[in-house]
Design brief:
Length: about 150
């Protein structure tokens, strides 16, 4: 693992020496690759300032990534009050079941509320069992989910 990181560092050094653009100091301790108790050396890489911007964009993009998974649909409606009802359902669900996420999905002309970001159908079944007393008629749907927070 350390040899891979060192080869990346050397590549960055070579890459940064070939650039003539604005230079920025890039401290590898910002990456938090090594735990504090294992690291005894400091490496500083001088590189193009755009490299930091690219890294920040990659990290921000990964937060928005989605995967196929399962949720429990707790609301489905259309009409003039459907959006307000869906927003109220999301608010109530999040306050009743802390730690669980709920989202409004709009597929014209319908508003749907999906609860939970379950990676497996079994997870979704457990969530459905928990909430079916308060939300009768809820059912499991396969959909895109956000990656779980770590």
């Amino acid at each position: 693992m350390k040899t891979a990181v060192l080869s990346i560092i050397l590549s960055l050094i070579c890459f940064s020496n070939s650039l003539k653009a604005q230079q920025a100091i890039y401290d590898l301790s910002d990456l938090e690759i090594f735990p504090d108790d294992e690291s005894s050396a400091t490496v500083r890489v001088h590189c193009n300032s755009d490299l930091k911007t690219i890294e920040k964009n990659i990290i921000a993009g990964n937060k928005k990534r989605q995967a196929m998974g399962y949720s429990v649909q707790i609301y489905f409606g259309s009409g003039s009050q459907a959006q307000a009802t869906a927003e109220k359902m999301v608010k109530n669900f999040k306050s009743d079941y802390e730690g669980q996420d709920a989202n409004i999905i709009f597929e014209a002309p319908y508003f749907k509320v999906y609860a939970g970001n379950c990676r497996s159908r079994l997870e979704a079944m457990k969530l459905k069992k928990q909430i079916e007393d308060k939300y009768p008629g809820c059912f499991i749907v396969e959909c895109k989910i956000s990656y779980p927070k770590i």
